[in-house]
Amino acid sequence: MIGIVGYGSYLPRYRIKVDLIAKQWGADPEAIKRGLMLYEKTVPGQDEDTITISVEAARYALQRARIDPQKIGAVYIGSESHPYAVKPSATILIDALGIGPHVHVASYEFACKAGTEAMYVAYSLVKAGEMEYALGIGADTSQGAPGDALEYSASAGGSAFIMGKEKVVAEILFTHSYTSDTPDFWRREHEFYPRHAGRFTGEPAYFKHIHNAGTSLLEKSGMQPKDFQFAVFHMPNGKFPQEAGKKLGFTKEQMEVGWISPWMGNTYSGSSPTGLSAVLDVAKPGDKIFMVSFGSGAGSDGFVYQVTDEIEIVRDLAPKLRDMLDNDKIYLDYGEYAKFRKKIILNE
Amino acid sequence: MISPRYHREVAQRYRLEAGKCKQCGNISFPPRLVCPKCKSKTFETVQLSREGKILTFTIIRVGPDKFSKETPYVVAIIELFEGRSSNDGVRLTAQITDCDVNKVEIGSKVKLVFRKIQDEGKSGLHCYGYKAVLI
């Protein structure tokens, strides 16, 4: 049996309400909330970035896995906000958590699906017998240009998953990926904010890739939507994942637990992985979970998980996602948010 | 350029590695070459607990240039829950982050977290280490 042996998530405490962003740019907050189904989003502290978020998420994953960090043979972090252009984020993470130095690390980048890329490669290396454990992380401090539609959703957070063969919490039964050259969203070298193609990011990009990866995954597994207790999709906003899931045949009830974007925003590479984390916090042994990520550019990774008895042992060994999402929040006004996100030009 | 010094302190700043005297058991953080209690020179490496309590603190309202945009912030002396009694634990100095500075109190329980401490200018290293949050 190969799958997740430990999982952990981390969300910053800071939040900004969608109303304040709308007010700043003269937009109608009710129309934004109704249209995008977003109410507030996480904001990284001034001393937080993809590396610090990854470290805390991975620390929680290690607490649940209860393994010697030295046994981890690979660490991959997927993000589009790696603090360094040249220097893998995981070089810092391994030293913080006592992993390695006999370990393979890499930074992945594929818009919002870099996290599931990291998870897929970590899983595949364990499956190939190359190593006992591998760690895959999706984390971001997402960028959205001031006044752009992305500013309502781009948030911060991440999740970490240790893959292994023993004491598996959620077995990975099937995977499937679907990728094409679809220029719906990109960021050129040295540019601070990403660009996107407006409504083109919907049907030809998000919905097409999620649907094709999802239908192929169902075919490959021989399962139907009704066979799953939970379904998680990439959450660029609150509305898209509900529509994509419905089109594949999933119900609102199946998607409810992993649908956290209305209060978290879009944590980009940490989006669907963090939805999965929220599901694992409540899933029962035997439950099946359907998950499809999406990354602009564009591609989707699909996974079918089956939860094991081990979940009951590890669940309470680290903070749960919903507790982090709902409690101890510090709300910022737009000025503080602009300062935190370095949107204000300062003298050197 | 603080890169070499930063690299040398990674074990302490990232993993809270301390030196425990093999002769008298005293823990030094950061590690020392000679035990300040028994003068022994043999140590084993131990990893400190990440939880403790605030012994005393100050609120920085006028910070040094690098931190002037982060004021007000709290810097505290923290005693970790490490020793044989609550009063002989290891002490360290750290910033208390993610907090309302007016709600920090002596005796508050804290947890050490991994955060960015400073940047080496616009193109230099990001320097990471420990800060504390209230629990």
Structure characterization notes:
The complex is a heterodimer of chains A (348) and B (135). Chain A is built from 13 helices and 14 strands. Chain A is α/β, with parallel strands linked by helices and 348 residues long. In chain A, the strands form 3 sheets. Chain A has a 9-stranded mixed β-sheet with strand order 5-4-6-7-1-8-13-12-11, with helices on both faces. Chain A has a 3-stranded mixed β-sheet with strand order 3-2-14. Chain A has a two-stranded antiparallel sheet with strand order 9-10. In chain A, α4 (89-97) links the parallel β4 (72-78) and β5. The model of chain A has no long low-confidence stretch (mean pLDDT 96). Chain B is mostly beta strands. Chain B has one domain (3-134). Chain B has 2 helices and 8 strands; from the N terminus they run ααββββββββ. The longest helix of chain B has 6 residues, at 3-8. The interface between A and B is medium-sized, with 24 and 18 residues.
SS summary, helix count of chain A: 13
Tell me the radius of gyration of chain B: 16 Å
Radius of gyration of chain A: 19 Å
- CATH homologous superfamily placement of the largest domain in chain A: Thiolase/Chalcone synthase
Distance between the termini of chain A: 55 Å
CATH topology of the largest domain in chain A: Peroxisomal Thiolase, Chain A, domain 1
- Which CATH architecture of the largest domain in chain A is right? 3-Layer(aba) Sandwich
Strand neighbour order, sheet with most strands of chain B: 6-5-4-7-8
Q: Figure out the total of helices of chain B.
A: 2
Main structural class of chain B: mainly beta
Helix and strand composition category of chain A: alpha/beta
Number of domains of chain B: 1
Regarding quaternary structure, what we see is heterodimer
> SSE order of chain A in H/E notation?
EEHHEHEHEHEEEEEHEHHHHEEHHEH
Could you tell me the strand content of chain A as a percent range? 15-25%
The beta-strand count of chain B equals 8
Helix content of chain A: 25-40%
Summarize model confidence as the mean pLDDT of chain A: 96
Amount of helix of chain B:
under 10%
**Which sequence of SSEs, written as H and E, runs from N to C of chain B?**
HHEEEEEEEE
In total, the number of strands of chain A is 14
